[in-house]
UniProtKB/TrEMBL annotation, chain B:
<keyword id="KW-1003">Cell membrane</keyword>
<keyword id="KW-0813">Transport</keyword>
<protein>
    <submittedName>
        <fullName>ABC transporter permease</fullName>
    </submittedName>
</protein>
<dbReference type="Pfam" id="PF00528">
    <property type="entry name" value="BPD_transp_1"/>
</dbReference>
<keyword id="KW-0472">Membrane</keyword>
<keyword id="KW-1133">Transmembrane helix</keyword>
<feature type="transmembrane region" description="Helical">
    <location>
        <begin position="91"/>
        <end position="114"/>
    </location>
</feature>
<feature type="transmembrane region" description="Helical">
    <location>
        <begin position="149"/>
        <end position="168"/>
    </location>
</feature>
<comment type="similarity">
    <text>Belongs to the binding-protein-dependent transport system permease family.</text>
</comment>
<dbReference type="InterPro" id="IPR000515">
    <property type="entry name" value="MetI-like"/>
</dbReference>
<keyword id="KW-0812">Transmembrane</keyword>
<feature type="transmembrane region" description="Helical">
    <location>
        <begin position="239"/>
        <end position="259"/>
    </location>
</feature>
<feature type="transmembrane region" description="Helical">
    <location>
        <begin position="126"/>
        <end position="143"/>
    </location>
</feature>
<dbReference type="InterPro" id="IPR035906">
    <property type="entry name" value="MetI-like_sf"/>
</dbReference>
<feature type="domain" description="ABC transmembrane type-1">
    <location>
        <begin position="83"/>
        <end position="263"/>
    </location>
</feature>
<feature type="transmembrane region" description="Helical">
    <location>
        <begin position="33"/>
        <end position="55"/>
    </location>
</feature>
<feature type="transmembrane region" description="Helical">
    <location>
        <begin position="214"/>
        <end position="233"/>
    </location>
</feature>
Length: 244, 279
């Protein structure tokens, strides 16, 4: 159980116990996974392909009703998902996408504020196809944040972006998470991205937690010795030689 | 590490335009009034044919004779009344058919139970020519307006149903997934995701429905009509007036053409979010 700054024990935002999920009869994707995420904690989930990262995220998002399995999942009331593709509805203008499903008279104002926060002020009336890939993903971030989720689930949200846009998006995401403090579960296949962004990195293997490390770096630059050490450790656990 | 930083040179006004040119494979920019080129050409061929005597008046009246006949019908035989009667008939029938077709398509598209009830009968109805059902409708609804409107409604319902259903089912499943994570109810899902997503299909269906409703109109107006373009044609047929028949045909053609243009124009406006070759 996590402790907050005053040393008090707090209820975790996410609690997963003995989670099993399988797509075929013979092999499970998740095999009895346990996981706690504290409120406001940023967790990056890494692992080789097919180790159950997305399966776990989809289970937390409640998008796996047709998948066989059992276990216990507890998530906050307000959960928002950022997908790898922005999933902006092509027939809604950017602002309408951001406030899609939002209730209340001030929805449009909140939407405008969220768009300004992700640097898209002035693009409210644009159609999604008129935005670049990075802008679309920022709009989808705004759509998630405007709902003030207690849990933000992100499934490789920067996977389809170019390297430069990615770096900018990393800074933006950290900044937004510090301002809004949701618990975050970020699925990524990029070890560097995990270390740059997260408070804690969890490595899945064969459907259970293989490694669970806290990132306690004061300086998150790639040239930092601690960064390199953590990177080597994680790459090693992934079965990749760090300096190949 | 050495790095060379280049500052931007002072630019001089230079309007040289040298670029790589690629052959365009899409249809390119829209041409103004392009819509009317084809019809104008057809009219030109018809006029030249009639003027040179290649097209005999007994086969097809000359355009100018048709204009005279039009004037005669307008002044002496209440052509406007006939046009309005036909328009009203096809509009009422079309509206009924479009609304019913769209509602059935949404129900059958969103609910497996609805699909099992609705889709079969419509596919069966589709393979039975509507015109073959008319005798039965006359037995059921009599020979008056009711039978006419219902026939037109049924004939325009099918394309609306088929294309709306298809458009709805082609909506990417990932949008439904997104809607689920956003936590909206069924009504909001229909309004914000299903209807706009199915709109391109619906509009395509609309183009077919509009012309189908005119087809239905032509047929039903041959049964005991006392007003309408079909009635006018039937009369002209009895008296061997080809020019009046052509007046009727031209009016049907204008109806269809205007209605189709209206649907296409609406489509371009409401589908502004799409980036397609339509342009």
């Amino acid at each position: 159980m996590a402790t907050d700054t005053r040393g008090l024990t707090t209820e975790p935002a996410v609690r997963v116990r003995n989670l099993h999920r399988s797509f075929t009869k013979d092999g499970g994707v998740l095999n009895g996974l346990d996981l706690d995420i504290a409120p406001g904690e940023f967790v990056a989930l890494i692992g080789r392909s097919g180790t159950g990262k997305s399966t776990l995220l989809r289970a937390l998002a409640g998008l796996d009703r047709d998948v066989a399995g059992h276990g216990r999942i507890q998530v906050p009331e307000s959960v928002s998902v950022v997908f790898q593709d922005s999933r902006l509805l092509p027939w809604k203008r950017v602002l309408d996408n951001v406030i899609f499903g939002l209730r209340g008279a001030d929805a449009a104002d909140r939407g405008r504020k969220a768009l300004a926060e992700v640097g898209l002020a002035g693009r409210e009336r644009a159609w999604p196809y008129q935005l670049s890939g990075g802008e679309q993903q920022r709009a989808s971030l705004a759509r998630s944040l405007v709902r003030e989720p207690q849990l933000l689930l992100a499934d490789e949200p920067f996977g389809a972006l170019d390297a430069l846009t990615r770096i900018r998006m990393h800074a933006l995401l950290r900044q937004l998470c510090e301002a809004h403090r949701p618990a975050v579960l970020l699925v990524t296949h990029d070890v560097d991205e995990a270390i740059v962004l997260a408070d804690r990195v969890i490595l899945l293997d064969a459907g259970v937690v293989d490694t669970d490390v806290r990132v306690e770096l004061t300086n998150r630059s790639r040239s930092d010795a601690g960064f390199a050490e953590l990177r080597t450790l994680l790459l090693d656990r992934l079965g990749v030689a760090a300096d190949a | 590490m050495t790095a060379t930083l280049h500052t931007a040179p002072v630019t001089v006004a230079d309007t040289t335009d040298q670029r790589v040119v690629r052959r365009r494979l899409g249809p390119g920019h829209r041409i103004r009034f392009s819509f009317w080129f084809g019809p104008a050409l057809a009219l030109a061929i018809w006029s030249i044919g009639s003027a040179t005597g290649l097209i005999k008046p007994a086969i097809l009246s000359a355009p100018w004779d048709v204009v005279v006949a039009f004037q005669d019908q307008w002044v002496n035989h209440d052509l406007l009344g006939n046009i309005l009667a036909s328009l009203q008939r096809s509009l009422v029938g079309l509206t009924l058919g479009v609304v019913t077709g769209a509602v059935l398509a949404v129900i059958s598209g969103l609910s497996r139970f609805g699909e099992s009830l609705i889709d079969g009968p419509i596919q069966i109805k589709r393979s039975v020519p509507t015109l073959a059902i008319i005798p039965l409708f006359i037995a059921w609804f009599g020979i008056g307006e009711e039978m006419k409107v219902i026939t037109i409604a049924l004939i325009s319902l099918v394309p609306i149903y088929i294309h709306t259903h298809n458009g709805l089912r082609s909506i990417d499943g990932k949008y439904a997934e997104l809607a689920e994570t956003i936590g909206i109810n069924h009504g909001e899902f229909v309004r914000h995701v299903v209807l706009p997503g199915a709109l391109p299909g619906f509009l395509l269906g609309m183009r077919f429905a509009v012309t189908s409703s005119l087809l239905g109109l032509v047929v039903v107006e041959h049964y005991n009509a006392v007003a309408g373009i079909g009635y006018m044609i039937t009369l002209a047929e009895q008296y061997g007036q080809t020019d009046v028949i052509v007046v009727g045909l031209v009016i049907y053609g204008i109806f269809g053409y205007c209605a189709d243009s209206a649907v296409r124009f609406t489509g371009r406006r409401v589908l502004a979010w799409r980036q397609t070759l339509e342009g």
